[in-house]
Sequence to fold (429 residues):
Amino acid sequence: MANVLFTNARILDGSGAQPYAGEVLIQGNRISRIGRGARALPVSGVTVIDAAGATLMPGMCEAHTHFGWTNSKTLDAIQKMPHEEHTLWAAQVAKQYLDFGWTSCVGAATPKPRLDCVIRNAIDSGQIPGPRYIAASQEITVTGSLGDDLLPHLPFPEMSFGCIVNGADEMRKAVRMFLKYGVDQIKLNLSGDNLVPGADARTSWMSDEEVAVAAHETKVRGKRLACHARSSESVKQAMRHGFEVVYHASFTDEEALDMLEAQKDKVFVAPGLSVILRLLYEGEVVGIDNKMAKSMGYELELEAAVKSMKAMLKRGIRVLPGGDYGFAWAPHGENAKDLEYFVKYLGMTPMETIVSATRWGGQIMMRGNELGEIKEGYLADLLLVDGDPLSNIAVLQNRDKLLAIMKDGVFAKEPEIRSQRSRWSQTAA
Fold:
């Protein structure tokens, strides 16, 4: 881990402040000093990176990550990959996220009970490259809801990508199992989903008794609760039981919005717009045309989700990018499209979108006092971007435009020497 000085950078610090020209000194894994203007900081004993006017910004956080999703066409296909191949797949996906500038990721569920923990531990120990990672449980569900893929003639729990429970005792056993394995976050499927016949997005499935048991077991061990909650009632249920991460929240009434607002300093929402949008307009890849997607309720859900997210943003509720990527119609690697969707559909400015992916990203990673901003003393997770995300948010979708990627003070991608730039790097004496 070398000391690095970025010079001649356009610094977009993640706080919401306007960019400024300056320098950033990295010592070890932290941002040591920030200078405004040219040559404000000493260069002795450091590796100098001449940004040549490129944008230096914090690394981004993907708030709704499934390393174990296999870019498959169906939900049940996810679980069919054998354990060994699945582990290798998830390791490759983790590296892919880092390569696209996602230096932090929040696990939103894993298809195999220990898969997320194994990948997190391998990243933390340096065995494999990947983002900072919060490891999740499987999606805990109930019979008939999202995650129950069992067939009548093949009633084997291992065949389902969700962990199926019924009643408080089974819930307690499942949560304790995942906590034993070392997860950071317990995930419950409180609502249905339009992909599930007979359990659409507006339905709610878990009893308060089941949810209360999960909440107690999780909180008593200091871990965090997350949920799949598309229906209004499931969102309210999540708020009653102290969930901190809500995925989707497409359908919300005034009571649900009031409850979210009352806990806005604790709760995060990741809507996963990509799953809806891509199935609605690009679903032909899995045999779902626009007419079929509308019949499945996706046009209605998109309208409701956009309305809900706009209302949340007005109320100061943190809405973060996290698109549920890892399906054939929304494959891994295209996650930065979420940022464009936030601008196009939610009316967020590019600056607000950057803040949601960086500053709020540090907060959802439970490290808001040291991650997600370019600030002295903060962890050195940084992107050097050839372009201006504030004028073109889509530039962050182009891997080639990410000139350098740094995580924890170490380059995951080093800047290349380019003839059109005066100087990329040199070691100062």
